[in-house]
From TrEMBL:
Lineage: Bacteria, Bacillati, Actinomycetota, Actinomycetes, Kitasatosporales
Species, as recorded: Streptomyces kasugaensis
InterPro entries the UniProt entry points to: Cro/C1-type_HTH, Lambda_DNA-bd_dom_sf, MLTR_LBD
Single GO MF descriptor: DNA binding
SUPFAM superfamilies assigned: lambda repressor-like DNA-binding domains
Protein name in the entry: XRE family transcriptional regulator
Domain HTH cro/C1-type: 41-88
């Protein structure tokens, strides 16, 4: 199974069908029907009514027949399908109703001022990534917490690759499935926002063919961009470490993401201090 370069028309069709089938008509206060529903979720007629478009238009969209909905229609569909903010952004990206974020292409190297900032953030573990999770820069604390990135070839300096493929990092997160699921939801949003990024497409294809868990979760079409959260990591030498993470996007370099970890409790702070002391 491979993931081709983004075919936005077909992905738009699949995403609309997927989200329509997820909705519970009762939760939307729609009238009950006498005949049983043969398919899950809403009917196309119901989506058309909620979005104030024709049923034929919904049919053609879901069949991938080359339509490019306007921004107004995309907004109406977002509301009709009760999309989350991240899902709404994803739909706008698929409909090509947003300008490309970086005319020069995806970031592949760290911007020097941001590299210095990563170092200056010590003793907080910090790293710089791009939209596809490539690790572009890191400080000693982040390397001490995760692993020495200098020992890896550049192609493996990717946090999703490490989580899926690296034998040590695979067992590093206590709630691994949640971490993987959230990472995949981010990658799907990045995939739609950067259809020109062949390296990202190839990376997703590698994961889809090489990891059954990734393939299963990718097919669910979850979309979410996490700007902050919590992770619990297990280190055999210092025990469990719980961190809060924050992801910051520089205004001048929006394709680069600064990730900062902070200890969530005193026990974790003590464990991080012991790692830093080494």
């Amino acid at each position: 199974m491979t993931t081709p370069t983004v075919d936005t028309t077909q992905e738009l069709a699949a995403f609309l069908r997927n989200r329509r089938e997820r909705l519970d008509p009762r939760a939307l206060g729609l009238p009950s029907r006498r005949r049983s529903r043969r398919t899950p979720g809403l009917r196309r007629e119901e989506v058309a009514e909620l979005a104030r478009v024709s049923v034929d238009y919904i049919v053609r969209l879901e069949q991938g027949r080359g339509l490019r909905p306007s921004a107004d229609v995309v907004e109406a569909l977002s509301q009709a399908l009760r999309l989350t903010p991240d899902e709404r952004t994803y739909l706008f990206d698929l409909a090509r109703q947003r300008r490309p974020r970086n005319a020069d292409g995806p970031a592949t190297t760290a911007v020097p001022p941001l590299t210095r900032l990563v170092t200056d953030l010590s003793p907080l573990p910090a790293m710089l990534m791009n939209h596809r999770y490539d690790i572009l820069a890191w400080n000693a604390e982040m390397a001490g917490l995760l692993l020495d990135f200098d020992t890896l070839p550049p192609s493996q300096r990717n946090s999703m690759w490490l989580c899926l493929m690296h034998p040590e990092i695979r067992e590093f997160y206590v709630d691994r499935e949640r971490v993987v699921r959230e990472g995949i939801a981010h990658l799907r949003a990045a995939w739609a926002a950067h259809p020109e990024d062949r390296a990202l497409t190839d990376l997703i294809a590698e994961f889809t063919t090489g990891d059954e868990e990734f393939a299963r979760l990718w097919a669910e079409r979850d979309v979410k961009v996490n700007g902050r959260g919590r992770k619990v990591m297990r280190r055999p030498d210092v025990g469990a470490i719980t961190v809060h993470f924050e992801v910051l996007v520089p205004l001048q370099d929006p394709d680069q993401r600064l990730v900062i970890y902070r200890a969530a409790d005193e026990e974790s702070r003590s464990a991080l201090d012991r790692l830093c002391a080494r």
